[in-house]
Every structure is written in C-alpha cells, then in structure tokens.
Amino acid sequence: MARRMDEYLKPLLEEERFDFYRAICDFGEREIAPNLLRWERGHELVPTSSISAMGELGLFGLTVEEEFGGQGGSHIDLVLMGLALGYYSQSVAITPGAATSLGTKPLQLFGTPDQKKAHLADLAAGRRMFVFGLSEPGRGSDAANPQVTASRTADGWRIKGEKCWSTNARWASHVVVHALTDPAGRPGHRSTCFIVPMDATGVHYGEMEGKQVWLQSSTGSIAFDDVLVPDTAVLGEVNEGFKVMVTTLNGGRLFIAALSMASLAFGLDKCRDYAQERIQFDEKPIGRFQRVQDVLLDMDIAVEQGLTWLMHLLRRYDAEALARESAAKVKIELSRRSSDLLTQAMEICGGVACLDEFGLIRHHRDMFVCRVGEGSNFALKSLATRPLLSRIGDLLQ
Q1: pTM of the predicted model, to two decimals?
Q2: What is the secondary structure of 145-159 as a DSSP string?
Q3: Set 136, 240, 333, 374: catalytic member
Q4: 31 is annotated as an active-site residue
Q5: Residue 269 has what pLDDT?
C-alpha cells in the first residue's frame, strides 16, 4: 500500500535517511505484514526469529556508537524505524524501540566506561536486551517516588519490591531498576538506578496476563526478593536516579509520538482507499460525500503537521536542546489527535473496520497505549503547563 506519509517525510529528511527509512519499510512488508494475523490469532508474541532478523538488520544498534558495533545513528533514525514498522504494528515496532530508547539509552547516557564495555556491543547486536523497570503496582505517573527500595549492605545494595508494565521483559537479559535509596532526601534526589541481571538470585519475572493492547509485545512484572547487587551495578550517581529516568523518558516520548503518527498514517491510507472503492447510494463511491472528505482531510493535515513538528523536536533532542515539556506536548497532542481521528476513520469504513484482517482495529486498540505510555497524557499536562504558570511554580510541584 502506498504511504501518503512518505510524501511528507521525504522533504524533511536527507536522501540517505529517507532511503534508510524505506529499507525498513520494505523489511516490514516482507517480514512483519504477512505474519501479523497469524501471530494475533495465535496469541503469539513477536517470535525470536523475527527479533533475530531485526538484530541482523541492525535495528537494536541504531543509536549505539560504532566503536561498540552499532550504527552510530541519532534519535531521528530510531524514530524513523518506529514510523516504518509502527505502520504495520505498534507492538512489533516497540520491541526494538523500547530496547533502544528505554534499555540501551540510559546506559549510553549515564553508564561508566566499564559498564558500556560490558554491555553495549551485545545490546547493539540484539544478543542482549535491557528493560527499564520504572512503573510499579502502586506507582504509575508518580514514578519519582518508587516503592521499590534499595538499601546499602556491607558490599553493595539489597533491592526489594516489584516493577510492572515492563516492555520486553520476556527477552531481557538485564533490568534497569529505579529504586528509592534515600527516603529523607529532597524531591528528585532520593532514588538510584541499578543494572540488575534477570537471572540474579531473587529476581522473578512473569508475563502480565489479560492485556488487550500491544498484543505482540512482551509486558512483564518483575519482582525483587532481597536481590543483592554490587556498587558497580549503580547506573549514574547514587540518589540521582530521577535524572536518569526523566532524561530517558524524553526520548521515549518522542518515539511514542512517532507510533501515533504511524498508526494514523496507516488509517489514512486504508480509509482513503476504502472511500474510493466502497460503492453505495446510486452506485457511486462514498468518497464523494463531504463528511467523508472532511475526515480524510483532517487525517491528512494531522499527518503532515505531526511529522513536521516531530522532526523539528527530534533535531533539538539530538542537539541536547529539547525541554521536557516539549517532548510531553508532542506526545500528548499526537496521541490524542491520532486516537480521535482513527475512531472517525473506523466510522467511515463501518463494520469491516472491526475485522482484524482490515487492520484498523489493531491501530485503534493500540493507540490507547500511546495516550498512557511514557507518562499518561493527564499527568504530562501538569508537567507541560508549568512554564505557562511560572509565577506559581512552587504550587505546581
């Protein structure tokens, strides 16, 4: 299916970058699209063979430095991968996406030379995968105050508690755990991040059951039962885990915004084809009706605007000049706009839009994750509002 999105992306990218994006689109057309229905109807996660194929293509090392075997690319390259694969399935695209933006990225930003040497090459090749342990059963948007604790021992740290909603947990070799280390510390300086092997004594993983979104993505609960780790497991500085977390989430929110655009782009293409092929009322296509045209145009405008905004912010992110509220705003707006328009697209297509083989219901369902993932939109609105109300900033904390 020809992608309307490509017409807007091409002028925004260097020729080499656009060719890279198209190569991943072709990979998705060959390796992902023909298998999606079978995976969904069989309740299968992304198979390890497909993960290996992504690794061979270099998708897990897109932003990893060449000295560690990566592609040496930027966050723009990672987002282009999300646009290319998310067009077919968000839950497939998030597998290398989360592995890179939430797993590998904090190690790149805050890891010691020894930590990078120990892990980055395997992460870039897809032989190893980090999962970000942030959300908890009792902590969602209030992630700055984790209930998982890490207390000092004679030769390291003892970690207790549980993380949940951890993307890629089934395939992870290590988990980056955000834990409370100084309950009396000032806000933003009371937690620490740790790199913990998934096979360490006391670590217990279970796939979360009953999930009806991102069906091909692994979403796990990870419990820590007096898990002992050495001081060398600390990622970043002690009691500066909040900094690791929020810096990582900035890039993750841009990726989620890209998944929103990918789903909307799929909906636009599917809907405009249907509007020209569906014959009703005097044996003419339904695309002649103004209301149908209104929805198609709104979708088209949203795709063009969203991609232009996103690429602008990505360049600021890669220049280390992107404010937290900017990443929050683009994630909020692109996810809610795409979600609303996909609902209207389904109304245009009618009952066929509910069939899994048509594809719209998959994206409509998965758009919910974009509204609550990487920080719920409701919570992020409070963050994004602070610069507007700077004179009462202390009351907004």
Answers
A1: 0.94
A2: S-S-EEEEETTEEEE
A3: 374
A4: no
A5: 97
